[in-house]
Write a structure and sequence with these properties.
The chain is of the alpha/beta class. It contains 17 helices and 14 strands. It has 2 domains: 3-196, Rossmann fold; 211-438, Rossmann fold (3-Layer(aba) Sandwich), CATH 3.40.50. The protein has helices at residues 11-22, 34-41, 52-61, 71-76, 98-110, 127-138, 159-164, 176-186, 198-229, 233-241, 262-275, 281-305, 331-341, 354-360, 370-374, 394-400, 415-420, and strands spanning 3-7, 26-30, 65-68, 80-83, 115-119, 145-149, 169-173, 193-196, 312-316, 345-349, 365-366, 379-382, 405-408, 424-426. The strands form 2 sheets. It has an 8-stranded mixed sheet, with helices on both faces. Strands 11-10-9-12-13-14 form a 6-stranded parallel sheet. The structure holds uridine-5'-diphosphate-xylopyranose.
Length: 440
């Protein structure tokens, strides 16, 4: 059993702290938000994440997971301190490090014995050294500490499963012994552990996210070419994926990537590259293609409906992806905004994100279920690939719509089947105009 403190109980902090507690460690999770901590003591979670609540409850009950807002208490018995605070996007695309700075200063001011400080937040290359300097400068008296970078690779919607089944653990530090002690913490996860220097570990995180974003933009570009040439991108991706050098993951074309990581991290990496005098051409193209993918949906709607002014368009799914209530940089909401600007009436349905959308996008008329949402619509756009959309009663939907126009931004449906049912169907990259192949 190790004494672990986690600073910040957003996605990363809450999942990391809870799962380390579940591995038998004693975890104290700190956040400066009092209400959040009060709620967590009663197992009320600030986020929706499948399976997390049960693990939180189990570990609170076993007294392995506790919560506090007090830094003195949080650091009193800690051996390992994980910094898991947010690093939002700054004005120019650089990461905003104010919360990391606050955490580092508070650690410095409140630590009373040697500590290993582990950074999990995605931070610009070089931040580990910067954090070490801040701690050194703010300590009332010198106490030894080490800084280790341990980037997280959790995906929202499957974060608990991802924590217990990582592909690898990456650790970077100038202090090898500290890195080895953090490696010990991760041994129960039985994944390969890469130990390297601080900057390389920080770069691994950016390079990994940028590579995955590149795969998505790549397949989206191929999708657009497929539409021009009459090929089906879903089958192209399948055919490519059997090549072991390529693999099947992250080759789903659609409305482009969203969420709190890929858009921010690709931009931040490009910014870092530019500031340091290199020209990140590929990253620029990845971001441009991602923007175009959202626009394509509007172009398809205009192609089928003409002027969108006054037309009622329904969005199936509002979260940035399935199994989450997270709406940060949601492609669906980008599309909603474009539709709103074009003068359309925008409706929406999402199984869990509706509450968040009601707070941020008052112009979207939210419905209680997909059938209510689609009734009277001039067009429906599939914007988030929730499982429950895969077997909707499409006949009922078609009959209730004003016009049977269906733009499948996530390629959930079979184009031929939808056309047979009488829909004017457009997918992404599925034959001429995204409408299906000529194979009958
Ligand atoms: C991502 C990384 O996967 C994770 O390792 C990192 O820690 C945080 O960022 P997340 O943002 O939760 O995780 O979601 P992910 O499943 O990676 O999807 C990101 C976006 O890409 C979503 O908008 C998703 O819909 C989209 N996507 C994903 C595609 O459009 N096509 C794909 O093939 C895969």
């Amino acid at each position: 059993m190790n004494n672990i403190t986690v600073i910040g109980v957003g996605y990363v902090g809450l999942v990391t702290g809870t799962c380390f507690a579940d591995l038998g460690n004693s975890v104290l999770a700190l956040d400066i938000n009092k209400q959040r901590i009060e709620n967590l003591r009663q197992a009320i979670l600030p986020i929706y994440e499948p399976g997390l609540k049960e693990v939180v409850e189990r570990n609170i009950h076993a007294d392995r997971l506790r919560f506090t807002t007090d830094y003195k208490e949080a650091l009193k018995d800690a051996e390992f301190v994980f910094i898991c605070v947010g690093t939002p996007e700054g004005v120019d695309g650089e990461a905003d490090l104010q919360y990391v700075r606050m955490a580092a200063e508070s650690i410095a001011q409140n630590m009373e014995h040697p500590l290993i400080v582990i950074n999990k937040s995605t931070v610009p290359v070089g931040t580990g050294d910067w954090v070490a300097n801040i701690i050194r400068e703010h300590q009332p008296k010198p106490i030894p500490f080490a800084v280790v970078s341990c980037p997280e690779f959790l995906r929202e919607g499957s974060a608990v499963r991802d924590f217990f089944n990582p592909d690898r653990t990456v650790l970077g530090s100038t202090d090898r012994e500290a890195a080895h002690r953090v490696a010990q913490l991760h041994l129960p996860l039985r994944a390969p552990i890469v130990i390297t220097d601080l900057r390389t570990a920080e770069m691994i995180k950016y390079a990994s996210n940028a590579f995955l974003a590149t795969r998505i933009s790549f397949i989206n570009e191929i999708a657009n070419i497929c539409e021009a040439l009459g090929a089906d991108v879903k089958e192209v991706a399948q055919g490519m994926g059997y090549d072991k050098r390529i693999g099947h993951h992250f080759l789903e074309s659609g409305v482009g990537y969203g969420g709190s990581c890929f858009p921010k991290d690709v931009k931040a990496l490009a910014y870092m590259a530019q500031v340091h005098g290199t020209n990140p051409q590929l990253l620029g193209a990845v971001m441009d293609i991602n923007k175009i993918q959202r626009k394509q949906i509007i172009i398809k709607l205009e192609d089928m409906l003409g002027d969108l002014k006054g037309k009622t368009i329904g969005l199936l799914g509002l979260a940035f992806k399935e199994n989450t209530d997270d709406i940060r940089v949601s492609p669906s909401l980008d599309i909603a905004e474009m539709l709103h600007e074009a003068g359309a009436v925008v409706r929406g349905y999402d199984p869990v994100a509706a509450e968040n959308v009601a707070r941020s996008h008052a112009f979207i008329q939210l419905a209680e279920d997909p059938y209510e949402m689609t009734t009277g619509c001039d067009a429906v756009v599939v914007a988030t690939p929730w499982n429950e959309f895969k077997s909707l009663d499409m006949d009922r939907i078609k009959k209730a719509m004003k016009q049977p126009v269906l733009v499948d931004g996530r390629n959930l449906y079979d184009p031929a089947r939808m056309r047979e049912m009488g829909f004017q169907y457009r997918g992404v990259g599925r034959g001429f105009k995204g409408g299906g192949s000529d194979l009958q």
